[in-house]
Amino acid sequence: MASADHRDRLRFTPRWHTGQVTHLIDLSHPVVEGMETYRPLPPPRVEILNNYDASRYDGKSEFLIASLHLCGNTGTYVDSPRHRYRSGVDLAGLDLERLADLPIVVTDTTRSGRAIGPGALPTGDLRGKALLVRTDFSRHWGKDSYFSGNPFLTAEACEMLVATGVAFVGIDSLNIDDINDMSRPAHTQLLAAGIPICEHMTNLAAVESGSGRLHAVPIAWVGGATFPVRAYVVADR
Question: 209 in helix, strand or coil?
Fold first, then answer.
């Protein structure tokens, strides 16, 4: 499992048609064979189906073809309502408006303790926006300490968020819930309201409220409940 938090993974790409420079901020952990995301779920496994030596096209070209066998809860991933509810909307049914080109609000809860209540959340307009909850717990990624004592949102915090009309909620923690609470109030309330959840984010210290637009789109898996995403923020500077 990769141990780096990848806080410096920023990309600068020119927008030739506007003359602007696009600042891309990566908020995802790379997927590495054998990595652990949530114990005791299985780690990802790579199978090489066709390597370069076996794929030669009369000596003119060669290709690598591989399969990645992984649990939906691997790396940085999005939960759909189906993750919590049998009849909930699956990954293929999620509206792109809740996953892509979302204005962002970042709340710094690094001094709020483990239980993040309503008082630690922003009071401004969240309707149609992505709320990113920064805890800096991602600094434990790749270590045993990542699998216990995680910061989480309380039931009261999530009740408030549902009322705001927030479109998406992400957190840089092992779980948005207290893993010792089997009722999982955060998942229960947010997913019941159709709000996608993104867990195991990273690099949230690099983004600021109103500084860009979030993209965190999983594959359109019919029947799928959760799946990894390459979450990132696009900001012009």
Answer: coil
| Nearest CA among 179, 206, 198, 191 for reference residue 40 | 179
Q: How far is CA 199 from CA 28, 50, 58, 69, in A?
A: 10, 33, 46, 20
Tokens encoding 159: 């009740």
pTM: predicted TM-score of the whole model, two decimal places = 0.91
Closest to 195 measured CA to CA, from 57, 55, 88: 88
Quick: pLDDT tens for 48-90: 999 999 888 888 999 999 999 999 999 999 999 999 999 999 9
Cβ–Cβ under 8 Å, residues 10 and 23:
yes
CA atoms within 13 A on the CB side of 165: 5
8 Å CB contact between 75 and 200: yes
In sequence order, the 6+-apart residues with CB closer than 8 A to the CB of 75 are 28, 29, 30, 31, 35, 37, 200, 228
Vertex 209: Cα angle to 74 and 143 (nearest 5): 30
- The DSSP code for 77 is E
* Total residues belonging to the chain: 237
Could you give the CA distance from residue 150 to residue 25 in angstroms, rounded to a whole number? 24
DSSP 8-43: T-EEEEEETTTTEEEEEEE--PPP-TT--SSTTSPP
What's the CA gap between 35 and 39, in Å, rounded? 11
